[in-house]
Each structure stands twice: as C-alpha cells, then as structure tokens.
C-alpha cells in the first residue's frame, strides 16, 4: 500500500541526509527531484539562518537573545489561502498564525519554503522548529512528529471539469486522479479501486493537467481547491467531500516544551478571536 511506502520512506529520511530522500517514494518524478534539490538549498538556508541568529544572539546584537531567539518554520507556499507567494513574500493564514504564535512566545519568525514531502523530514531532523502547511493530523505522520492542537477544519474535495461523468467520490474508481505528492489526497487516492494516481509537486500543476484533459479529477484540500477553481474556467468542486480532516502544526517528536508553548499561544488566539480574524482576512464568508 502506497501509504505505508510513504511512511517507510520518511523513516529512511530520519537517518539520511534530507536532500537524498526528501522526495520519499520510489515513484519520484524528475520534476519532484528538482524540487528536492530546491528543498535542500532551502534547508541549507535554514541552517545558515539559524547559525546567523545564534551568532547575532552571541554578539548581543539583536533583541532575539533576550526574547528567546528565532523559530524556523517550514512550509510549502503553493497552497492558497494558507500559504502562497505574493510580491516576493510568503503570505497566508498559516503565516499570520505562525507570526502571532511567535509574537506570543517572544520569538522571531523565519520562514523557509520547500517541497511538501520534505516538511516532516525537516522537522524530524531538527533543521526546522515546526511545519505549518495546512498539514492534516494523520496517525502515520504522528510516528515522526507531534501535532499541536488543531486550528482549522478541512476536507479533501474532488475537482472535475464541468460536465464530467464523475459526480460522487464513488465514480472515481478506474479513473486517472491527480494529487500533490505526499499529501493526504495522495494517500487516499491510492486506495481508490483501479484508479491511476498521477503525482505533482504543486496542487496547481495537477489542476493544470485537469484543464488539459490529461487526468479526470484532482483530490485536494477544500480551500486551495476553491482558489484554483476560481482561477480556472470550466472546473467545479463536487458537493460531496472525499474526507473530513483537521489541520495542526507539526513539531519534532518529543519537543513538549515547544508543543506546550505553541498550544498555549493557539488557545490564546482562539479565545481572543484573533484566529478567526486571520481566517476572515483570507477566506470570505459564504
Ligand atoms: N492537508 C494536506 C496534507 O496534510 C495537504 C497539505 C498541503 O498540500 N499543503 O497532506
């Protein structure tokens, strides 16, 4: 089963250099390999950023020393409205939440962008402090990382072309389905009877393949699906979701100190209404 392969690949990653294994599965495409090279560069950047901040703290140059230093967040900024690029900046719901959490903890925030399937290895290896990436709480992932309290309800939905014969999740049997590599959509698509799964580095690339009739459907998270369907004519989201899920932030397994501080901050953001205000800034009420 593919799901187990993904987990096993992640296990191998625990002992190997990140760049050597970040694409995980044996079905890695050339394009995916490119992205892992980028991820490796990003990781190096994360490391040097960490060193720099340590140096700065040593030299007492910045307030980060007193405030407790810099938190390194990793994400995959191809996932609007949670994280995406805008004017050379990474913005989105997760970014605002992470900023608010860092502020609550008196820390600076540094964001590194990498392939989605490199995020858990980056946290697991200690190259990053946490991953905030619209990441679904999943028992297989919990073997490698700990999740904070959840901060959003989510769902995997199905995007098809308007007029498609696919009307419900059951109709996906035997179809060609596009997913983003290493996502829960990827795991679930693999269990669909007789379906052929095509994996892409970015959800948007899967959507492009759908518009070009190269695949029959895309399984992806609901909020990015809405953005992609809005941006591309002739697509629609099926009413019936494929699965319901919840998002949380992933930290290194056993780092209870960070986990507790983040949970405290998340609780505060929920209680004060700030979390809802962040969501409302990016997602229009229906
Ligand atoms: N929620 C999905 C997952 O955790 C997809 C997240 C993403 O693509 N950023 O696998």
Question: Can you walk me through this structure?
Answer:
The protein is an alpha/beta fold. The chain contains 11 helices and 14 strands. It has helices spanning 2-15, 18-21, 30-59, 64-67, 93-105, 119-124, 184-189, 203-211, 222-231, 256-272, 274-282, and strands spanning 70-75, 78-79, 83-86, 89-91, 108-113, 130-131, 145-147, 152-161, 176-180, 196-200, 217-221, 235-237, 243-247, 250-252. Strands 8, 9, 10, 11, 12 and 13 form a 6-stranded mixed beta sheet that branches. A 5-stranded mixed beta sheet has the order 5-1-6-14-7, sandwiched between helices. A 3-stranded antiparallel beta sheet has the order 2-3-4. A hairpin with a 3-residue loop joins strand 2 (78-79) and strand 3 (83-86). Helix 5 crosses helix 10. The longest helix has 30 residues, at 30-59. It is globular, with a radius of gyration of 19 Å. The termini are far apart. The model is unreliable at 1-5 and 7-67 (pLDDT under 50). Bound molecules: glutamine. Glutamine (GLN) is lined by residues 76, 79, 116, 133-136, 180, 183-184, 221.
Silhouette: globular
Gyration radius, rounded: 19 Å
Strand content: 15-25%
Largest sheet: 6 strands, mixed
Which series of helices and strands comes N to C? HHHHEEEEHEHEEEEHEHEHEEEHH
Q: Helical content, roughly? A: 40-55%
In this entry the ligands are: glutamine
Contiguous runs where pLDDT drops below 50 for at least 5 residues: 1-5, 7-67
How many extended strands?
Answer: 14
The secondary-structure class comes to alpha/beta
Mean pLDDT: 84
How many H/I helical runs? 11
Alpha carbon gap, first and last residue: 38 Å
């Amino acid at each position: 089963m593919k799901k187990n392969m993904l987990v096993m690949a992640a296990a191998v990653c625990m002992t190997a250099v990140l760049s050597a294994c970040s694409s995980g599965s044996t079905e890695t495409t050339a394009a995916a390999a490119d992205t892992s090279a980028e991820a490796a560069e990003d990781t190096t950047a994360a490391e040097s950023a960490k060193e720099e901040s340590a140096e700065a703290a040593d030299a007492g140059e910045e307030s980060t020393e007193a405030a407790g230093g810099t938190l390194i967040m990793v994400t995959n900024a191809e996932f609007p409205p949670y994280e995406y690029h805008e004017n050379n900046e990474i913005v989105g719901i997760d970014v605002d939440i992470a900023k608010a959490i860092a502020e609550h903890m008196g820390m600076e925030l540094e964001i590194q962008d990498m392939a989605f399937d490199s995020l858990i290895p980056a946290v697991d290896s200690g190259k990053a402090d946490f991953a905030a990436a619209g990441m679904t709480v999943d028992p297989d992932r919990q073997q490698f990382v700990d999740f904070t309290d959840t901060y959003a309800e989510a769902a995997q939905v199905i995007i098809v072309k308007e007029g498609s014969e696919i009307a419900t999740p059951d109709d996906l049997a035997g179809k060609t389905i596009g997913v983003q590599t290493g996502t829960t959509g990827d795991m679930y698509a693999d269990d669909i009877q007789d379906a052929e799964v095509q994996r892409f580095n970015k959800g948007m690339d899967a959507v492009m393949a759908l518009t070009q009739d190269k695949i029959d459907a895309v399984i992806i998270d609901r909020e990015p699906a809405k953005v992609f369907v809005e941006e591309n004519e002739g697509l629609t989201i099926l009413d019936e979701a494929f699965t319901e899920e919840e998002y949380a932030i992933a930290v290194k397994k056993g780092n209870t100190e960070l986990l507790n501080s983040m949970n405290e901050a998340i609780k505060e953001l929920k209680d004060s209404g700030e979390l809802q205000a962040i969501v409302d800034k990016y997602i229009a009420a229906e």
